Records
---
Amino acid sequence: MIGRLNHVAIAVPDLEAACAQYRDALGAAVGAPQAEPGHGVTVVFIALPNTKIELLHPLGPDSPIAGFLQKNPAGGIHHVCYEVEDILAARDRLVSAGARVLGSGEPKTGAHGKPVLFLHPKDFNGCLVELEEV
Amino acid sequence: MIGRLNHVAIAVPDLEAACAQYRDALGAAVGAPQAEPGHGVTVVFIALPNTKIELLHPLGPDSPIAGFLQKNPAGGIHHVCYEVEDILAARDRLVSAGARVLGSGEPKTGAHGKPVLFLHPKDFNGCLVELEEV
């Protein structure tokens, strides 16, 4: 069911420093910061030959990653995103298998403008999983 | 400098349950467990179309992931692995940029039989980074 790994998201306390590090020390192709006020984050995509790293930094007072950075002040790997062809079919299969979908259970529009869902990390080995329909 | 994302490693407390979940609920291609006593882990590779997920479970008394699972009993994303063409050149560039290499600073042979190094997570936004020469 799951397809490509769309991205790995890393929450960072200092977006400028993280961008400089990936660009200068790791020599990667770092994109421009994109404010996503609807999602409470500023994102920077780092293009690797086969997938992307998504740097996440809180934006606004109700950022969904503020709590993560309080618990992990240095930052940390926040989630992985797997691509699926049909997000509603994927959701129904996962719910049947006992997994919990975060929020209302209905897909939202993600940072790429595609429908996304998040699965409860307690159901996936402590790993927050995003599904994105492509 | 960094190339492909070789894998994302997820430490899991129950390897059999994690394999069943990725195979049955997420519908992924889950490999057979491989004991790696030299690394203190049992690994299972999950093949995605563009990269791999590496499930890690402690093996033996001195497993390098035992402490991680003590802090994160449900499991969690443990590290990301980026491919590099020349691991010594990569190391020297990173050390010049102020990053710390874990252990002796010399590459070891990783689970794929290739030279690997780990970078200090405090230097990379709380994210443990493995470099693998390919």
Note: The radius of gyration of chain B is 15 Å.
---
Amino acid sequence: GDAWTVVDGHHLEATYAFPDFETALAFTNDVGELAEAEWHHPDIHLSWGEVRIEMWSHDIDGLHRSDFAMAARMDRAYAAYADGE
Amino acid sequence: GDAWTVVDGHHLEATYAFPDFETALAFTNDVGELAEAEWHHPDIHLSWGEVRIEMWSHDIDGLHRSDFAMAARMDRAYAAYADGE
């Protein structure tokens, strides 16, 4: 998705916006479910109306195709919220 | 609780440890519930086995007694996990 940027050639980062804290927390849980299903756990920064994700593959200390696959899954999860607005 | 430190006289910070991602996510939801109940929303940094909290009162851009009250509530929520281990 458009939200993602590659930072220092090392990790992916995206910030998703939400209308309130509760919705941002719900999305955090969606990301958590994906992370457990894929056994690939990003760093999730939750604050009021915002979820910022940082993600990389710890075993290679960099980016793997699985990171981009997870990024696409998060974008799809986010689309469900955007459609509802 | 012992976990909290005052950073730059401006905000409170604590890092809570967990045995896995799922438990850290569960605690994140507990903190989210407290935040909604008190209408006081900290920044929550969730990663594998860890939840780091940063909290201050945005209206005064500093610390208020409500921050310390929330900190105590989070410590009590965390105790429920520690007791289970």
Note: Residues 5-84 of chain A form a domain with the Gyrase A; domain 2 fold (CATH 3.30.1360.20).
